[in-house]
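Notes from hallway chat w/ T.B., transcribed later so I don't forget. T.B. wanted the structure written out for a chain they're using in a teaching module, and asked if we could keep both sequence and structure tokens in one place. Agreed to drop them here.
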Amino acid sequence: MSALKETAEILVEKLKDIKMAVLSPYDVLWKELSEIAETPNDSHAGELEASIMLYLSPELVKGRANEEYPQIPKPFTVKDKVKYWPGGVWGNPKKATAEKGKKAIKIMTDKIVEILDRIEKMK
């Protein structure tokens, strides 16, 4: 996200008439989205993301991985992430449902519309 925000700042400076927002649903909607998920600290390929895929493109969901949380030692960046995070899952995708995905998409699209409305009102 940092690189996207920095790029947006450059664009806003160079393109005087542009209006822009950079966001991640997890950053701006963490509280609302975490209320949908039963899994605390859910993230990549976990309950919420699997639910979104079950709602948007269920044919792409080929099964459910086991619950997993990365064990990357803090504050380090490691070369071999698989050593500390073998399945690439952060949460519990077995608790995913299409209904949870539908709720998440509704929350996200409502927020995007709200942000676009705010951008439109900026003068």
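Follow-up for T.B.: The domain at 26-121 is CATH 3.40.50.10310 (Rossmann fold). Might be a good example for the class.
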